[in-house]
Structures are given as C-alpha cells and as structure tokens.
UniProtKB/TrEMBL annotation:
InterPro entries referenced in this protein's UniProt entry, alphabetically: HTH_HxlR, WH-like_DNA-bd_sf, WH_DNA-bd_sf
Keyword line: DNA-binding, Transcription, Transcription regulation
Residue span, HTH hxlR-type domain: 11-114
Source taxon at top rank: Bacteria
Lineage: Bacteria, Pseudomonadati, Bacteroidota, Flavobacteriia, Flavobacteriales
Organism name: Chryseobacterium kimseyorum
SUPFAM superfamilies registered for this protein in UniProt: Winged helix' DNA-binding domain (SSF46785)
Designated name of the protein: Helix-turn-helix transcriptional regulator
Length: 122
C-alpha cells in the first residue's frame, strides 16, 4: 500500500514539474527561439527571419518572457544605429538536449506520417 502511495506521489510530482516547464515554455515560438540561440547569439532581425511565421510583436513578447525566466540575455550593442543581440544563458543551455530530443522526435514523426500517407494513397 505504501509503495502504491509513493508511485502516486512520484507521478503527481512529475506532473507538477511538467506543468511548471510547460508554463515557462508554452506557446508556439519559445522552443524555436531557444533552439536558434543554442547555436549562436542572434540579433532581433536575424531571429525574425529564422523563426518562420512569427510577428515582430510576438517575437518581442517571447524574448521578454525568456529573459524574465533567465533563459536568454539581451545585450545592447554599441553600434549606430543601436542593435540588440540575444544569447542563451548558461541556465538556458540546459534546454539544448530537450530541443534536440524534440527535433529528433519531430523528424521521426514527419517521416512516419509521410510514409503512412504514401501507403494510403497507393
């Protein structure tokens, strides 16, 4: 009985941790932004081009959220005109494995779906 309680407790704690993570990384764009910045620091305009489909207003909002959660840093460059560069923090780098895992799963899933479509068409 006690072991069963521990399993339920472990499950509840894991679900709570997943909820916390999803709250921070929620939305369509944050994981894509993090994945981009894991490769190199980027300026706002570079991110806008790289993250296909995101609006400027949404990119600004997502960058602020990621900065508040200490996943990225914002650096104002001493240039004329003034430019801003974003980079992943050491803490944010802990998400690189997660972005790679999600990407790997996405590749496999896309292949599976495309293969299934071919089978249904034939």
């Amino acid at each position: 009985m006690e072991q069963e309680f521990d399993l339920v407790k472990d499950c509840s704690q894991k679900i709570l941790a997943i909820s916390d993570t999803m709250e921070i990384l929620n939305g369509k764009w944050k994981m894509s932004i993090i994945a981009c910045l894991c490769y190199k620091p980027m300026r706002y305009s570079e991110l806008l081009k790289e993250v296909k489909g995101i609006s400027g207003k949404m990119l600004s909002r997502e960058l602020k959220d990621l900065e508040i959660n200490e996943l990225i840093d914002r650096h104002v460059l001493n240039t004329a005109p003034v430019a801003v560069e974003y980079q992943i923090t050491e803490y944010g780098k802990s998400l690189k494995q997660l972005t790679n895992t999600i990407a790997d799963w996405g590749f496999i899933h896309r292949k599976r779906i495309i293969a299934g479509m071919k089978t249904k068409v034939e």
